[in-house]
Design brief:
By secondary structure, this protein is of the alpha+beta class. It is built from 10 helices and 17 strands. It has 2 domains: 138 residues, Response regulator (Rossmann fold); 228 residues, 4-Layer Sandwich (Phosphatase 2c, domain 1), CATH 3.60.40.10. The strands form 4 sheets. It has a 5-stranded parallel sheet, with helices on both faces. A 5-stranded antiparallel sheet has the order 6-17-14-11-12. The protein has a 5-stranded antiparallel sheet with strand order 7-8-9-10-13, covered by helices on one side.
C-alpha cells in the first residue's frame, strides 16, 4: 500500500464474510469497519471519513443496487469508490453495478492477492480524485478572490451629472472578465466615460483589463487641455505602452472613450475599434459612432482621431460590448438588429434594463459565452 492508511467500510449481511474481510484488511494496514445492511451503511457513510466501500450485492431489505444508486446520486458521496462483493455466478449483476458507477468488484471466495489489488487501486484513485478536488477548490477560491479584486476596478458609484441620466450594467461570463467600464472627472469639470473589451477570456484577459483601465484613467486624469487633447493623450499613451512594453503578449482591447460637457451637451469621443455606440432619440436611432482609430495595443504610433456629437435634450447614448450582440440563443446570435429594436425607455437605467431583459430572454438555457457590459447616457 502507498500513501496514508485508508479507511474501508465493509457492507455484508453475512457476519462471517464481514469478519473475514475486516481481518484481511487490517493485515494490509488499513482501518476497517462493518455494516450489516444497506441502511446502516448509508448512515455510516454520511458521517464521512471512508475511502472505499466494499458492498455486497445480495442483501435483505435494501440491496447493493439501491445502496450504490443512492451513493452515486449524492453529490457529496458520488466520488467515493465502491467495490461490489459478488459470487462468480453473479457476474451479470456486477456488470449492472459497474454501469451504475461501481469502481470494481471482488469475487467470492475472497482471495488475499485480489483483495489487495482491488483495494489498492481504488485507494489510489480516491487519493488522486481528492487531490484534484482540492486543487479545483483552491483554484475556485483564487478566482473568487480575483473576482472581488476586479470589482474594485469598476466605479462604486457613477458620477451625478445635472440634467443627465447615467447608468451601467456589467455581467461577466466567468468569475473574472476582460470587459470593463469607467466614469470619472477630468480637467475642466467634464466627465469621461470608458467602455472596453480586452481580447481573449479568463485570467489573462482579466489581468490586462486592470492594466488597460489603469493606463487610460491615469493618462486622462493627468492630461491638461480640452477634451480633444485629453482623449488623444489617453488613447495614444495606452496604445503605445501596450504595443511596446507588452508586444510579445499580442494583447489588445477595443475601447470607446468619450467626454461629455453636461452644460452644452457637447460629446467628444475616440472609438478605438469598438462596436459602434448608438445615439438615439424619440424611439429612433439618429447616429452610430463609428471607429476613429484601431484597437488599443495593436501597433505603436497609431493615430486616433477625435470626433464630436451634440447630444440634445431627450437623446441618449448606448455603449456596449460584443457580448450583447453575440449572446447565443436558440435562434443564433442576439445581433445588432435586435439591439436597435429594444425600446429606449424614459431613462438610462430603463434603457439598459430593457436590453438586459431582451438578451436574457434570447439566451435562456444557454451558457454565457462572453462578458456583457453596457453604459447608457441620456440627456433629460
Amino acid at each position: 500500500m502507498t500513501g496514508s492508511p485508508g479507511r474501508i467500510l465493509v457492507v455484508d449481511d453475512v457476519e462471517a464474510n464481514r469478519d473475514l474481510l475486516i481481518r484481511r484488511l487490517q493485515k494490509l494496514g488499513l482501518e476497517a469497519e462493518a455494516a450489516a445492511g444497506g441502511a446502516e451503511a448509508l448512515a455510516m457513510v454520511a458521517g464521512g471519513g471512508f475511502d472505499v466501500v466494499l458492498l455486497d450485492i445480495m442483501m435483505p431489505g435494501m440491496d447493493g443496487y439501491e445502496v450504490l444508486s443512492r451513493l452515486k446520486a449524492d453529490e457529496a458521496l458520488r466520488h467515493l469508490p465502491v467495490i461490489m462483493i459478488s459470487a462468480v455466478e453473479e457476474l451479470g449483476s456486477v456488470v449492472r453495478c459497474i454501469e451504475l458507477g461501481a469502481e470494481d468488484y471482488l469475487p467470492k471466495p475472497f482471495n488475499p492477492v485480489i483483495l489487495k489489488a482491488r483495494v489498492s487501486a481504488s485507494l489510489d484513485k480516491k487519493r488522486l480524485r481528492d487531490r484534484e478536488r482540492l486543487y479545483a477548490a483552491s483554484l475556485e477560491r483564487e478566482l473568487e478572490i480575483g473576482h472581488e479584486i476586479q470589482k474594485g476596478f469598476l466605479p462604486e458609484a457613477l458620477p451625478a451629472l445635472d440634467g443627465w441620466d447615467l447608468a451601467a450594467r456589467f455581467a461577466p461570463a466567468r468569475q473574472v472578465a476582460g470587459d470593463f467600464y469607467d466614469a470619472f472627472a477630468v480637467a475642466g469639470g467634464l466627465t469621461m466615460l470608458v467602455v472596453a473589451d480586452v481580447c481573449g477570456k479568463g485570467v489573462g484577459a482579466a489581468l490586462y483589463m486592470a492594466l488597460f483601465r489603469s493606463l487610460i484613467r491615469a493618462a486622462a486624469t493627468g492630461a491638461e487641455g480640452d477634451p480633444d487633447r485629453i482623449l488623444a493623450c489617453a488613447a495614444r499613451t495606452t496604445n503605445d505602452y501596450i504595443a511596446t512594453v507588452h508586444e510579445r503578449s499580442s494583447m489588445f482591447a477595443t475601447a470607446f472613450l468619450g467626454i461629455v460637457d453636461p452644460g452644452s451637451g457637447e460629446f467628444a469621443y475616440v472609438n478605438c475599434g469598438h462596436d459602434e455606440p448608438v445615439l438615439a432619440a424619440g424611439g429612433a436611432v439618429r447616429a452610430r459612432l463609428a471607429p476613429t482609430g484601431p484597437a488599443l495595443g495593436l501597433m505603436p504610433g497609431s493615430a486616433f482621431r477625435v470626433a464630436r456629437e451634440a447630444i440634445a435634450p431627450g437623446e441618449g447614448l448606448l455603449v456596449f460590448t460584443d457580448g450583447v450582440t453575440e449572446a447565443r440563443g436558440a435562434g443564433g446570435f442576439f445581433g445588432e438588429g435586435r439591439l436597435l429594436e429594444v425600446p429606449h425607455g424614459h431613462s438610462a437605467g430603463e434603457w439598459l434594463g430593457a436590453v438586459v431583459d431582451a438578451v436574457r430572454e434570447h439566451a435562456a438555457g444557454f451558457e454565457p459565452s462572453d462578458d456583457i457590459t453596457l453604459v447608457a447616457l441620456r440627456r433629460r
